Amino acid sequence: MNYTLNFAAVWRNFDGLINGLVLSLGLAVVSILIGAVIGLVVAFALMSKNPVAAMPARLYVTIIRNLPILVLVLFAYFALPQMGVRLDKIKSFVLVLSIYSGAYLAEVFRAGLLSIPRGLTEAGLAIGLTSTQIRKSIIAPLMFRNVLPSLSSTVISLFKDTSLAAAIAVPELTFAARKINVESFRVIETWMVTSAIYIATCFLIAFGMRFIERRLALPR
Amino acid sequence: MSQSFLDQLWIARFVILNGLGMTVSISILSIIAGSVLGIFVGLALAYGKWPLRLVVRAYTDIIRGTPVLVLVLASYYISAAAGLDLKPFSAGVLALAIFCSSHVGEIVRGALQAISKGQTEAAKAIGLTFGQTFTSVLWPQAMRQCLPAWVNTAAEMVKASTLLSVIGVAELLLRTQEIISRNFMSLQFYFLAGALYFVVNFAIERFGKYVERKTALPS
Amino acid sequence: MAKTILEINGLRKTYGQNEVLKSVDCSVEEGEVISIIGSSGSGKTTMLRCVNMLEEFQGGTIRLDGEEIGYHVEGSTRRRKSEKEIARQRALTGMAFQQFNLFPHMTAAENVMLGLIKVKKMKKPEARAIAEKWLDRVGLGARTNHFPGQLSGGQQQRVAIARAIAMSPRLMLFDEVTSALDPELVGEVLQVIKGLAADGMTMLLVTHEMRFAYEVSSRVIFMNQGVICEEGDPKEMFVKPKTERLAEFLKTSSFN
Amino acid sequence: MAKTILEINGLRKTYGQNEVLKSVDCSVEEGEVISIIGSSGSGKTTMLRCVNMLEEFQGGTIRLDGEEIGYHVEGSTRRRKSEKEIARQRALTGMAFQQFNLFPHMTAAENVMLGLIKVKKMKKPEARAIAEKWLDRVGLGARTNHFPGQLSGGQQQRVAIARAIAMSPRLMLFDEVTSALDPELVGEVLQVIKGLAADGMTMLLVTHEMRFAYEVSSRVIFMNQGVICEEGDPKEMFVKPKTERLAEFLKTSSFN
Amino acid sequence: ADGSKLDEVLARGKLIVGTGSTNAPWHFKSADDKLQGFDVDMGRIIAKALFGDAEKIEYVNQSSDARIPNITTDKVDITCQFMTVTGERAQQVNFTIPYYREGVGLMLKADGKYADYAALKAAGSSVTISVLQNVYAEAMVRAALPEATVDQYDSVDLIYQALESGRADAVATDQSSLAWYMTQNPGRYKDGGYGWNPQSYACAVKRGDQDWLNFVNTALHEAMTGVEFDTYAKSYKTWFGKDLTPPQIGFPVEFK
Ligand SMILES: Nc1ncnc2c1ncn2[C@@H]1O[C@H](COP(=O)(O)OP(=O)(O)OP(=O)(O)O)[C@@H](O)[C@H]1O
Ligand SMILES: Nc1ncnc2c1ncn2[C@@H]1O[C@H](COP(=O)(O)OP(=O)(O)OP(=O)(O)O)[C@@H](O)[C@H]1O
Ligand SMILES: [Mg+2]
Ligand SMILES: [Mg+2]
Prior knowledge:
- The complex is a heteropentamer, with one copy of chain A, one copy of chain B, two copies of chain C and one copy of chain E.
- In chain B, helix 3 crosses helix 5 (88-114) and helix 8 (172-183) runs antiparallel to helix 9.
- Chain B is flat and about 75 Å long.
- Chain B has helices at 5-11, 13-47, 50-65, 68-81, 88-114, 117-125, 130-160, 172-183, 186-215.
- Chain B has nine helices and no strands.
- Chain C has one domain (4-252): Rossmann fold (3-Layer(aba) Sandwich).
- In chain C, helix 3 packs parallel to helix 5 (153-165) and helix 5 (153-165) packs parallel to helix 6 (183-198).
- The longest helix of chain C has 16 residues, at 183-198.
- The two termini of chain C are 35 Å apart.
- Chain E starts with a helix and ends in a 16-residue tail after the last helix.
- Chain E is globular, with a radius of gyration of 19 Å.
- In chain E, strands 9-8-10-7-11 form a five-stranded mixed β-sheet, with helices on both faces. Chain E has a three-stranded parallel β-sheet with strand order 5-1-6. A three-stranded antiparallel β-sheet of chain E has the order 2-3-4.
- Chain E has helices at residues 5-12, 38-51, 67-72, 87-90, 117-123, 137-144, 156-164, 175-184, 210-225, 229-240; strands spanning 15-19, 22-23, 27-29, 35-36, 57-61, 78-79, 93-109, 128-132, 149-153, 170-174, 189-206.
- The longest helix of chain E is centred in the last third of the chain and has 16 residues, at 210-225.
- Chain E has ten helices and eleven strands.
- One adenosine-5'-triphosphate is lined by residues 15, 18, 20, 38, 40-46 of chain D.
- One magnesium ion binds next to helix 1 of chain D.
- Chain B: Belongs to the binding-protein-dependent transport system permease family. HisMQ subfamily.
């Protein structure tokens, strides 16, 4: 083609992209941490024999996982205030991404829990531990090791979902990129650089997770 | 604009159905193409010689690290740059299929590697070639193992199809936005769209469960 | 007469329609070593698990040192005790499982220390000292910082026994602790159990090793289809069984 | 003299630095039943797997009915045969594994039929008839449409044997086919093998069941550290071993 | 390939115009799903000039991001999509002569806290203004309301939604869009009574094809001042609600 690449506009606004990346990472970290807590509780609820715990958990996971996150983002930002809950745009996005992460992580954690032999719980019971102590000292640490490989891809896609925050004007990475686009229309160049930033970040996340996985691997 | 939401909905009914139809066709096409490609990706990852494995691993890692939006834009513009003049629909489906293939590839690899080596050896021992072993012994087992994760990917594809609105494919989200830009009832119509996406994905999930039950091995 | 530690009265356990234990009575005195034998599915494991409240049971009482285990029975009402109370009672008995069930993310010492710290509320150094003492006792003094994945089956089972015994239980329960072991590793585990018996530990053991049951037990209980079919001194029982069933069972078992 | 079916000459196999088979020579005549014994890690499995080309090997030749298996050797050059050719040669020997390795998504009959249809290019009805005949022979005539998950270990192993034997191999290889079975299921599998031996099937079997090796084999091979250390008639070898090593091995094995 | 786009379009027999579908009154869908609006009419004027038939036209639906790339990669012959003329953009595409001059206005809720522009300005930093995402959006608002908070959204319906849901106190965007919106929602909103930030809207074509650019310029010029004025005026009346005074007869207005 006779299109000549010109990155000048992108480099001029590179600071904006980096600031956007930092915000994206911040959103992802906070949301995933909150989501992990939700996910853990929900995963145990999903496994519970008690329908009062299991049913709402299943409903939550089914609904959230089948909705496009954009709809949730718009709901939290525009409809919740009409119901008396007013959060600023960053908080409302974090709320949504946490709830969204929670549903995904719950499924990941549940798979991790399923692979823990029942005998370990019984061994814990037999030495007099309570169920809560068993969950904390035995089940959770083992589950965490079990899920690390699949956790990595979930975390990466949740990180990529922070791009949806652009829709409510949170100045994260995608927002910053679009801002360059509307100014310069150097769309191809902007997305090339932006996707390189996303890919590099995702690689770092994957690498970090693999590092943790190796560190926590049990000697055998 | 004194009309109610229901009036507007009635006026827009065909447009919405149209968009829904488009969303479903995009999803089906990209899931099918992506899955076929993904099976080869998975095969290469599980059984390829190391140079091939390296290339395919780079492919999946890069694709999975890129937001789908960026893939969609790249497919549309870079294909043009490469002299391949794809219409937005084909470019979008191509992007989603590539995205899908990287995920399916990982799923297939995982499933293949979970099959015990003894299966391959037993097949070899009765004289099957690798091709026969794969089609008769490995794939039928891997497929069952893949199914739940594959269904999740399919649902992700439906959600990702929203991003084709950016290159002007008239799928459900763009159709919704068009309606909103006429009557400005954004909340109502976004949630209608949300509900429709939910219905589609829920149907996929149910279907997946059904197939899973149907193909479960007795024990 | 020695002090009665465990007293089981009319123990009844069902899985749905299936009555797995049908009114089992049994009492165990301090220092006794009792082997429970019987064919597969006769309810041996289930009985042991009821004593440790790993299974709920539908009727009868189990008393440990006179205290009701798991349920409080008053007339015709039967109330399950609180989870906390049951957890405390479980710590009074130690249990070793066929599958070892060591916590794979903890070293041998940490496995033993966990109960001491969380249940007995000991400080870490104290718990470690006890753990090391017991690991030494089972012949694993040099393996305290190994993870289960780094130990052989026999070593893992010995850690599991140390973990149970370190809690100073009133009663030890062993459920086929050697069945999952390669033949050459069975001996080392049985040796440890013999040592505990010699120390006067009260023990209930389910086993398929007839020779071992013969040598170590002060009494043998033969279960069949959810009831205790015959019990007595191993020297007598194994040589001249009173019931037809036991005679038959002994014929097919590896003892002869 | 009977016809020589298998001839192994100077077979050498290494894993990296580790030489697992060091110039093994061995020949098997039609109708022979040979047991390979030896301690763990001595190379028994590896030798069997080389014969079926499940392992590559670095030196020596294996001939089946005079035909070179896996490699074509000419002077000092050694060329691996094509995958297709090797697949054909693998079908000439049947193999049964310790872990059964039945295809879990196929019924017993389908497991047996697969090779007949894909390799022998039979029509389905013909293949089914043969499968049913062999399943009947191993005592599973009533289980042809069961999936592996619905069968006991012993039954699974018998299906696996039927699957191998249905291909009418020139030679059957058995690798510790009873080690993964519960003791009570071992008998039924050994019975099937005895039947095959009586039918004149040529067989090479790796086993830890000394009594069985003693009863069934026409010749026993004792392997040690990658070499054949002693071989001969079981009646003689087991009673008065010539080598120190075999004597020691027999002492620790369950035969005595 | 050396020929002009003009020849290519004529040979093809239809014009390919890039525009959007979600911004009233510029380019949006009617209730019966027809693309309409002022930008759309500009395309029709050019098609009429080309073929004498305004219907010989194909619209390519594109987002704002895609306006320039679709030209540079030849996906469209021309883009008419309320494109603000800037120097930087003019380096990448050739702009036609402008067909509309836009300014920014403010819209408030009719029953809202603030009466008009003066009230907003007086309130200083406590007001929030929602605008369409733009690199100079912030500066644009600052020029009128130096202290206000600026929230940027990426689609028009969202900036209105922000006002409606109380996320913003006023919307600042093209006066033409505001006018349209207020006509569609009579009585709910009011104009802030202040306009600023003039900008020109023009179509854009690929750089370096003077022939094609000249043709489009001629077509647009004659629509605004010559034979097609009635078409232009009619469209103007439809989308902006105002009547245009016909061009002055006599000496051409351009050279005054
Ligand atoms: N979770 C369960 N649900 C239903 N039935 C069960 C369950 N666990 C055990 N049973 C049944 O209870 C009966 C007694 O089982 P138990 O495990 O106590 O036997 P056992 O004497 O320990 O046998 P083994 O020697 O095989 O260990 C058996 O018939 C078994 O099928
Ligand atoms: N895949 C492998 N990689 C490296 N070394 C191997 C591999 N497979 C086997 N070995 C080594 O080769 C040697 C022979 O192994 P082989 O399995 O043939 O012994 P075996 O006589 O069958 O023993 P067992 O009675 O335990 O089955 C052993 O030292 C083993 O550690
Ligand atoms: Mg048991
Ligand atoms: Mg072996």
